[in-house]
Prior knowledge:
The complex is a heterotrimer. Chain A is built from 16 helices and two strands. Chain A has helices spanning about 20-25, 30-55, 70-105, 110-130, 160-185, 200-230, 245-260, 265-275, 285-295, 315-325, 325-340, 350-375, 375-380, 385-415, 420-450, 460-490, and strands spanning about 5, 525. Chain A has a two-stranded antiparallel ribbon. The relative contact order of chain A is 0.13. Mean pLDDT of chain A is about 95; it is low at about 1-10.
Amino acid sequence: MSAVIENHHDDHHHGPAKGLTRWLYTTNHKDIGTLYLWFSFAMFLIGGAMAMIIRAELFQPGMQIVEPEFYNQMITLHGLIMIFGGVMPAFVGLANWLVPMMIGAPDMALPRMNNLSFWILPFAFFILLSSLFMEGGAPNFGWTFYAPLSTTYAPPSVTFFIFSVHIMGASSIMGAINVIVTIMNMRAPGMDLMKMPLFVWSWLITAYLLIAVMPVLAGAVTMMLMDIHFGTSFFNAAGGGDPVLFQHIFWFFGHPEVYIMILPAFGIVSHIIETFSRKQLFGYSSMVWAMLSIAILSFVVWAHHMFTVGMPLAAELFFMWATMLIAVPTGVKVFNWIATMFRGSITFETPMLFACAFVVLFTLGGFSGLMLAITPADFQYHDTYFVVAHFHYVLVPGAIFSIMAAVYYWIPKWSGNMYDERLGKLHFWLSFIGVNVTFFPQHFIGLAGMPRRYPDYALQFADWNMVSTVGAFLFGISQVFFLFIVIKTVMGGKKATDQVWEGARGLEWTVASPAPYHTFGTPPKVD
Amino acid sequence: MNNKGKTSVKFLGMTVIAMFFFSFALVPLYNVFCEVTGINGKVFQSENSQEFMAEEGRDVAVQFISSNNERMPWIFQPSNEVMGVVTGKYYNATFYVKNTTNKVMTAQAVPSIAPSNAAAHLKKLECFCFEQQELAPGEEALLPVKFLISNELPKQIKNVILSYTIFDITDYNQENLAHLEMQVEKY
Amino acid sequence: MLSNFTNKLTGLLLTLSLFSSPAKADWFALNMTEGATAISEEVFNLHMLIFWICVAIGVVVFSVMFYSMFAHTKKKNPVAATFHESTKVEIAWTVIPFLILIAMAVPASKTLTKMYDDTAGDVNIQVTGFQWKWQYRYLEDGVSFFSNLSTDMDEIYNLVPKGENYLQEVDEAVVIPVGKKVRFLITANDVIHSWWVPAFAIKQDAIPGFVNTAWTKVDKTGVYRGKCTELCGKNHGFMPIVVKVVEQDEYDLWVSDKKEAAFKLAELTEKEWTTAELVERGESVYATNCVACHQTNGQGITGIFPALAGSDIVLNNKPRNIEILMEGVQGAAMNSFDYLSEVELASVITYTRQSWGNAEKGDGEIVSPKDIVDYKKPKI
C-alpha cells in the first residue's frame, strides 16, 4: 500500500455553488458521487418495496394480494431496479467519491461526461417505472428477458424497457470510460499500478469489464427491438433465427455483469479489513492477480446459466470445468482476508461487522455457486429457489453489505460527522439476522423442488416460505432504519477527525473531514 | 486533459463501438459454429450429392415428428412416421400438408434433429424447409425431404429424430425471410 | 384511527392464519430427492458429495476466521503482527483447492456423460409446452392428449381449503412403464417452457421450433410430480407435470384404452347429441378451460374478461360464437381453443348458450360436434 509523505490542501478554489442548480450542473466528483449514492438508495428502497410485495404474496400458498400477471411485473422490475438502479449506481457513486482521492487526483478525467452519466439515470428509471402504468403493464418477462417471451409475447411497454436499458447502458459505459482514463492518467507521481489501493484496482478491472460487455447488452436489446418492430428474426425460429441465440448473447453480457457487481465489493472489503485489523492487507499482489483472473475467466463461463437448453455434451463439460475454476481465485481472496485478520489487532466497529459478515456469507453464496456449477446436479437446481438463494447471498450479504460497510466507513470523511455507533451496530444485527432468515430457507425450498418466478406453490413449501417472508420484512424495515441513520449522520453528529479510523491508510485519510470540495489540486508525493 | 488521456478516451470509445458490433457478429458466428459442429440440431443444405455416399453402411431408424407452432391451423404430418435407413444412402421422405382455412397462407418449416450430435451427420440435398410454403385455401401437398445419414454417425446412435415445426408466416414481411419459389410436389 | 387500523390488520392476519400451514406443509422439506431412477440417485449422491466437501471447507476456513475474531481483538492482541505476504502460502492455497476441484469434476463428468446417452427408447413421447399446459404424444401408439392443472380456482383464491396435491395435480397424467427406457422429445408451441421431473433428474427446456431429448428408466412404480421451470407468462406456476409409472401390463392396458377412447371420440363426433348431454359434458369442459377468466357464474371480470351470461354473441350469434372459440380474438386474451375435440367444443359452447338464463333470453341454439367439423372444412 502507498504511504503518503505530504499533501497539499487546496487553497484558492471556491466552494460549491448555491441552490438546487448546484446539483444539476455540478462537475465535481464528490457531488456526483453523492448524487449516485442517494439515487441508488432511493432505487434500493423502491426495489425493496417490490420485494416486499413479492414476499407478501409468497407468505402463504394461494393468491392473496396480487394477480399472477402483476406478480411477474414485480419480479421483473425488482431485478432490473436492484441491479441497474441499486448495486451498479452505488458502486459508481463510491468510485466517484473515492477513486480521485485515493490516487491523489483533483477530480475525474471527464467531469462533464461524469455529470451526464449520472443525470440520464433518473430519466431511464422514470421511463422504466412509468411502464407500470402503461397498457399491458410493465415488463413481465424476468430481468433476463428471454425471447420469445420478451419479443413476440411481450406487452407494449417492452419498447420503453429497451429504451430504458439503452440509457442505463450508456450511463455505465461513460462512467467506465471515465474511471479508466482517470486511473490510467491521473495518478499522483510515485503511485505505480502495484501501489494503488485495492478499491482502485477493483474499479479499474470492473471498468474494463463494463466496456467489454455493456455494448453486448445494447446489441441484444437492439436485436430485440428489430425483431419486435422491424420484422427481423434474430430470435424467431420461423425466420431462421433461434431463441437460444438470445440466451448466448445475453449471458455473454450477463456473466461478466455479476462480476461487475462484486469486484468493487472485494476492493471495499480489503480496505476495511485492513484498517480494523490494524495490519497491512495480506498478499496484495495475489489479491490483484485474483481479481484479474476472475475477470478474465468471467468471459468464458456464460453458458452455465444455460445448462438445460440442450447444448451438446462437450460444451456442457467445458462450461462446468471453467466455472468450477473460478472458485480458485475467489478462494485465494477469502484466505487472504482471513490471513489479514489473523494476529491482527481487531476492533468491530460497524464497517468491520459488515465486512466480516461479507466474508462469511459471500463465501456461503460461493459454495452454492460451486454446487450449481456441477452440471448434472444443476439439472435439479436450475430455475429453482436454490438459484435464487445463491444469487441473493452473493448480492445482498455480498454486494449490498459491502456498500453499507463502505457508507459507514467513509461517511465520516464525506460528511465530517461520525455515525452513531450503537445505531450502526443495531442496523447491522437486524440486517444480518434479516438476510439470513430470508434467504437461508430458500436453499431448502429450492432443493425440495420449488421453481423460481412462481407466485404460488404446492403445500410442502409453505413453512419455509413463511419464514423467508418474515425475514424479508425484518430486513426491509432495517433498511428504512438505515436511511434514518444516514440522514441523522449527515445532519450532525460527533465530529470526525481527518484520520477517522486508527488503522486507516490511504490518501483519502490525509485530507480534512469533511473532505474539502476540491482536493489534491496539487498532486501529493507518494513513495 | 493531456494527450495520453485523449488517446485513452478514443481507444475506449472505439472498443465500445467494436463490442457493440461484436454482439451483432455473434449472429453469423453462432450459425457458423453450429454448422461446423452440428450443435443445436441445426441442419444445413448439402451441396454435393456424391460426397457422403458409401457402399456399406449400418442400419439406423429415422423417426419423423411434426409440430404446428402456435397451433397454426394446417394439417401437417409425416407420410411415414419411422423409416429404416442405411447410412451412406440417400432417401426420400415426404410430409403431408393441408391448408384447412379459407385464406391463402404461407408457412415456414424449421427442422431440428435429436440427438444434437447427429445433426452434423444428416445431410440434406433437398428439403421443404429451405423455402417458404404457400398454400391456397383447401390446398394439399406432399413436401419432400431428400436426405442421407453419413457413415460418420457415432456408432452408439441407432435412432435419429427429424422434427419439423411449421410456423405461420403469412403476415411477415415476405422480403425479409427466405428465398425462392415453392418447390412442392403437388398431390 | 391507528387502533382501528390495527384491529383490522389483526383481523386480517387471523383470518389468513385460518388458511395457514395446512396439513401437508413440511418443515422437513429440506433436501433434493433421491428420486426413482439410477441416474437420479447418482445425481443426489453427487449433490451430497459436493455439499459435504463445501461444509468441510467452510468449517476449516471459518474456524480459523472465528478463532481470529475472538483471539486477535485489540484487547487481547494490542500489537498487531506485521506479516503481509508469503508466496509459499499463496501457492498452497491455490493448488490445494484446484486439486479438490478436480476430485469433484471427475464424478460429475462421469454422471453427465451417462445422462447424454441418446440411443432409442422403448417408449418415445413428444412433450410440447403450451401456455399453460403440456401436450403429450406417444409416437409409437398415436396416443395424444393435453395435461392441464386440475386444481380448482376456488382453492387458489382461498375460498375453499387446499387439497393435498394443491398445484401438483393434472386432469391427465403421463403414463409410462416401469423398468423400460422412455425417451422424451421436448419442444414448445409458443414461448420457452421447461420440463422438470425431480424424481427422474430430468430437466430440459422446451424451445419453440427445436427438439430437446431426455431419457429415463424408472425403477419403482408410483406417481411422480414435476413442474415447469422456465418463465412462460402469467400461469408459469400453474402448469404442473404428473407422471404415473406402472407395470408393463397396466401400461399396455392404458394405451389400448386411450386408443379406444380416441376411436370412440370419433364416433361421438358423428352421433346425434341431446341438449342435456351436451350441457353436461360442456360443464366439465368449461370448468377446466374457461373458468379462470369467465368465472363459474359466467360473469367474467368487469373490464378485463367479458361476461358470457347475457352476452349478445352467446345469446344471438351462433356463427360468431363458434368463430371466437376456433380463432380466438385478435388483440385480446382470448386464445383459440381449436385444439379441443369437436365434442368438447360443441359441448362447451352449448353449455354457455344454455346456462345462466341464456337459454331463455337468446335464440337458444345449440352447437353439435358436426357444426364444428363443418366449420373446419375449407370454404371455397
